Amino acid sequence: MYDMSIQLKENSEKCLYEQIYDYIRLEIREGKLLAGEKLPSTRSLADYLQVARSTVDYAYDQLLSEGYIEAKPYRGYYVCRIEDLQKEIVIPRETIPIEDSEQGEWICDFSPNGVDMSGFPFGVWKRITKNILNDSNNELFAQGEAQGDLNLRITISRYLHSARGVNCRPEQIIVGAGNDYLLMLLEKILGRHVPIAMDNPTYKRAYKIFKSFAYPITTVNMDEGGMQVDALQKEGIRIAYIMPSHQFPTGAVMPIGRRTELLKWASEKEDRYLIEDDYDSEFRYRGKPIPSLQASDEQGKVIYMGTFSKAIAPAIRVSYMVLPQSLLEIYRRDCSFYSCTVSRIDQRILDEFIRDGYFERHLNKMRKLYRDKHDLLLECLKPLSKQIQITGEYAGLHILITSLNGLTEREMVARAACVGVRVYGLSESMVEENSDGKAADSSKTVLLGFGGLSQEEIKEGVSLLISAWTK
Amino acid sequence: MYDMSIQLKENSEKCLYEQIYDYIRLEIREGKLLAGEKLPSTRSLADYLQVARSTVDYAYDQLLSEGYIEAKPYRGYYVCRIEDLQKEIVIPRETIPIEDSEQGEWICDFSPNGVDMSGFPFGVWKRITKNILNDSNNELFAQGEAQGDLNLRITISRYLHSARGVNCRPEQIIVGAGNDYLLMLLEKILGRHVPIAMDNPTYKRAYKIFKSFAYPITTVNMDEGGMQVDALQKEGIRIAYIMPSHQFPTGAVMPIGRRTELLKWASEKEDRYLIEDDYDSEFRYRGKPIPSLQASDEQGKVIYMGTFSKAIAPAIRVSYMVLPQSLLEIYRRDCSFYSCTVSRIDQRILDEFIRDGYFERHLNKMRKLYRDKHDLLLECLKPLSKQIQITGEYAGLHILITSLNGLTEREMVARAACVGVRVYGLSESMVEENSDGKAADSSKTVLLGFGGLSQEEIKEGVSLLISAWTK
Question: Residue A299 needs a FRET pair 20 to 30 A away by CA distance; which of A172, B22, B148, B311 works?
């Protein structure tokens, strides 16, 4: 129990003890103090309120005699249970996110956001944490560098170079608590009203964020090579947001030709940039590694973004952004006073986790785990090979299924729901202003995520889907 | 060692093994692969690059024979030390924040931002963390609620009510990684170009942040009651940023009359609000507790902000913001898709730390620790009682010293620096556009922070100050 900040009035009609009594009585009656809660000791409260101890004694005696509180020998004063009065803490329904409230109603939920937490190395994480939480690491509890601790940035720059071919110095890296936050910071760097181009369909969360910035957004249709560069020339686009290694949701990989075109477009004007969101490049199950676009960027035109939330765990709120030199200078001039949003303890844990090789082992393990699920999903879907076409496979944590037998996306989603299976319409990732769900009518494609499902769930889910879609 | 994302060209003049050899050789020569680093196994790299294992074997053999790498029996291939070639990782000076680089040059630094980490309960924190990092807490590694986990919000709402008289329901609370982040989020809620009033002097970081929002800022002079309400009527001010319990840097407490005036001003128009930054209300050493302004707000006009960074440790990047109902609705409509910036693990640790009573004990301990330093500082300054006037004492982690013997702020700072002591001019907290440090000329006041200093340092620092200021 904390001391109670009772506002005593000296010129009140009521004397001090009555004011204290009234306050506590009301707190109990209104359920703000709950049954079983400990009150501050009379000495402590008197000290805190700067009144005589006897004043608090009087107030407590009155509360005792009226049954609001009870005294436990050697332990102090506690609030009594008063059945009629105690209100329970009511948790309003609205605070529970809709997604959660729909969980549990599904036999199988093919969410593209699901991840497998069974592979998380609790033991290692706990051991590293334990070693770090140590008196000799006092400095970890002090404020760290705005861009993130240098050691972690060195580690990230080496990892990115090695795994993704990204060329950067540690000082180009900004560590932040999640991509959403880094995009907010990027707005401060790029400025206001920056015309931006996005694919359609695209990663809807990024779309919402740019919209909340009031950025004029132009959606650009994709051909087989990804974003069409012609469209960028129009409307004074300054920024293109792309996912060249694995477009969400289509899974498309941008070929080298289109990459070169985009880099050329960006280099034509000083204030043009490409945001490369390399959100799940860690998971690729077939074929050669897809290099990052940043690896080919010689003019400093790519803002490279990545995260550990997908590869380690969503609760690890550590993302990073690699700024080209020109933007780094703006960041330093205008934004470097924003404190880092990741605690130094968490930065240090992650740094050791990567440097000691655990991250690599974890990635290898998860890649195998996800590949097995991916392969199983494709295998289970074979009976439908005449009715559906599969795209976006061999990478990431979801695949796309397009119906060949005339079912629309809406019908596929609805029929799946009837048998307790949740699939996700491609149109949910479409950006369509003022068109009342037209995309959902014309689309024949759904997303099936497999990251968060067990092998048993995948088997059962697909078997239900087959019955729902072929009846 | 991660697999290397080598971009192999099939139609190159060079065969595949040469391309691999060239790539690794260049990595070593350019210092991107460092001496002692382990290369991927030939099997793993061949698998990753989708080439025959013998291709990688050839490349490695060539590198071996030229002395770039060495083979260790049963362990694998490692990069050799090549003295002339290996570049060290050069850490550019500019990445080290200026504050840090000036540390260590001072015999005593009276920074107002210093905190005492010796009181941090490492043992308890470690034990709570250990218990939480447990396979059965799998759900902690999943994405949490955008506003912060409900349990933590319930705990914070109860703490705020009890300690600060704040009246709020858990759903009004938004948890975020630091005040800077919460202010960024608040910009999204309040909107653009919102005219805001701030004290002068004020908390400079908040000023910089509002400026980076391009908010038109009006600085309002303070009288003994704090911000003058008359000035708010002009210029269409919509928001006033205040610290009523303990103004930074002056330490002024806003009396009830001025609070009522401010609340009345805010209630006159629908879109007017008060931001109450209650940044260090935990530390008050004399007198009655100062209630929060939010406690008197009946019209839903106060946005209440607080942080655990000051009370626990700066590395604990957990702050909170209590929104009035009208703004909560805007948040839900427009901003609730922004992911929470604090990891669920950290939220859970903090929640248990508070609920199990450790936070209260920690606060009591720190309050005593800081009070002792505060009292010692005042005691040590007694010999100067004719030369200086002390204000802003009895609360927080700094005091103000105004010279009575004609020394300007600039002279006080400079003379202190000559004896190795750092004090902070009040003018550093002044907002003065286009005036070239005029405030520093007219000010005769410096800030002395004591939170981060030991008792010995305080004694030595003050004794040096006395010699510097009275010679």
Answer: B22
ipTM above 0.85, yes or no: no
Query: Whose CA is closest to B293, among B141, B164, B441?
Result: B164
For A31, the closest chain B residue by CA position comes to B158
What CATH number corresponds to the domain at position B293? 3.40.640.10
B314 within a domain of the structure (yes/no): yes
CATH number of the domain encompassing residue B43: 1.10.10.10
Interface test with A, best of B143, B207, B260 (most A CBs within 10 A): B143
Chain A residues closer than 8 Å to B310 by CB: none
Is A289's CB within 8 Å of B5's CB?
A: yes
For residue B258, being part of any structural domain is answered with yes
Positive or negative torsion for Cα A324, A326, A327, A333: positive
- Regarding whether A198 and A159 lie in a shared domain, the answer is yes
pLDDT in tens, A200-254: 999 999 999 999 999 999 998 888 888 989 889 877 899 999 999 999 999 998 9
B165 CA: distance to closest CA in chain A (Å): 6
Interior angle at CA B46, CA A358 and CA A245, nearest 5: 70
pLDDT tens per residue, range A347-378: 999 999 999 999 999 998 999 999 999 999 99
**Torsion angles phi and psi, residue B419, rounded to 5:** -100, 15
Q: Cβ contacts (< 8 Å) between B288 and chain A: which residues? A: 8, 49-50
* Among A291-295, A319-323, B28-32, the least confident range: B28-32
Report the distance separating Cα B17 and Cα B11, nearest Å. Answer: 13
- Residue B138 and residue B62 in one domain: no
**CB-CB neighbors (< 8 A) of A140 in chain B:** 315
Answer yes or no: do A299 and A377 share one domain.
no
* Interface with A, mutate which of B157, B338, B368 (most A CBs under 10 A): B338
A445-449: strand order across its sheet = A388-391, A398-403, A445-449, A424-425
Whether residue A314 is contained in a domain is answered as yes
Residue in chain B lying closest to A47 (CA): B288
Domains contained in chain B, number: 3
Tell if the CB–CB gap between B117 and A141 is shorter than 8 Å: yes
Residues B48 and B131 in one domain: no
| Residue with the two structure tokens 């990567």 | A354
Q: Is residue A246 domain-resident?
A: yes
* A409, A309: one domain: no
For tokens 């974003």, the residue is A227
DSSP assignment, residue A395? B
For residue range B298-328, what is the model confidence (pLDDT) as tens digits?
999 999 999 998 888 877 889 999 999 999 9
Residue A256 φ/ψ, nearest 5 degrees: -60, -35
CA distance A310 to A362: 12
Residue A150 and residue B291: Cβ atoms within 8 Å?
A: no
For residues B150 and B245, membership in a common domain is answered with yes
Binary contact (A162, B1; C-beta < 8 A):
yes
Same domain, A321 and A428: no
Choose the closest CB to A288 out of B2, B50, B147: B50
Say whether pTM exceeds 0.95.
no
Residues in CB range of B146: below 8 A, 6 or more apart:
A97, B336, B337, B338, B339, B340
Kind of pairing between the strands at B108-109 and B173-176: unpaired
C-alpha separations of A262 from A193, A291, B7, B469 in Å: 21, 15, 19, 64
Q: How far is A384 from chain B (nearest CA, A)?
A: 30
Task: Please name every residue paired with B226 in a beta bridge, in sequence order, or none if there are none.
Answer: B223
Q: Are residues A175 and A225 in the same domain?
A: yes
Q: Do B212 and A49 touch (CB under 8 A)?
A: no
Structure token pair of residue B385:
């009682």
Residues of chain A with Cβ-Cβ distance to B164 below 8 Å are 5
DSSP B55-112: HHHHHHHHHHHTTSEEEETTTEEEEPP-TTTPPPPP--GGGS-HHHHHTTS-SEE--T
